Amino acid sequence: xxxxxxxxxxxxxxxxxxxxxxxxxxxxxxxxxxxxxxxxxxxxxxxxxxxxxxxxxxxxxxxxxxxxxxxxxxxxxxxxxxxxxxxxxxxxxxxxxxxxxxxxxxxxxxxxxxxxxxxxxxxxxxxxxxxxxxxxxxxxxxxxxxxxxxxxxxxxxxxxxxxxxxxxxxxxxxxxxxxxxxxxxxxxxxxxxxxxxxxxxxxxxxxxxxxxxxxxxxxxxxxxxxxxxxxxxxxxxxxxxxxxxxxxxxxxxxxxxxxxxxxxxxx
Length: 267
Ligand code: A3P
What we know:
Rossmann fold; binds adenosine-3'-5'-diphosphate; mainly alpha; 14 helices; cytoplasm; 3 strands; 3-stranded parallel sheet; EC 2.8.2.-; single chain; Sulfotransferase_dom; transferase; sulfotransferase activity
């Protein structure tokens, strides 16, 4: 059986070993890449995209668990290869492949909520390193010492890339107001309502094809923290002390200097 989530070292190892094929990678015309920094709304976007592609057909969206409907290209190379995506052998994990994808959706979430979400995810994930205390994690996140590296470089890099490539740049905070945002698209009003309803946090939390309830405890221990945790904007206020917030804001100003990218930390 295929491992659900290979060890990170295995991912790096296979990246190195498959470098020749990676360089030759070419996406098909209808390929769509959903890209995010971890904990920014990947799962949510996956479900919305699938619902749109299936024209709001809930049953079709139940065909399998979400991580198999949209493989994680940086981790699920076994699945991709086995499924016969012929050109796609292994993709690099450092987001240099956007130039090859005809369609890209990038989702960004404010750093404070992202940090909180990532902290709880790492607490329950049994394959990522222990996050340590909240105080330790706070420092590590600011210093980019988390898997996938600095949040700051990720969001700034993609913000810049959107000027050169076809990238739909979305914000988690805006998606919370999605029901209004989506009006005016050419989707049928009834289908749209269904998509909004089915992709609400509450609905998705109960959906076994999404909530990772089938993932063994040895990989995700959801008794520590659920995969579908809170789904709100501003939970950082329940975690950051006043001193931490001040420290974070000063550091943030320096790291984000010179970019026009701005985030809403509350809605
Ligand atoms: P929290 O930990 O703050 O609750 P990803 O899918 O990239 O791992 O992102 C996970 C975050 O998105 C989690 O945040 C999760 O609860 C939130 N999320 C997932 N589905 C959502 C939805 N339908 N609405 C709002 N937030 C959602």
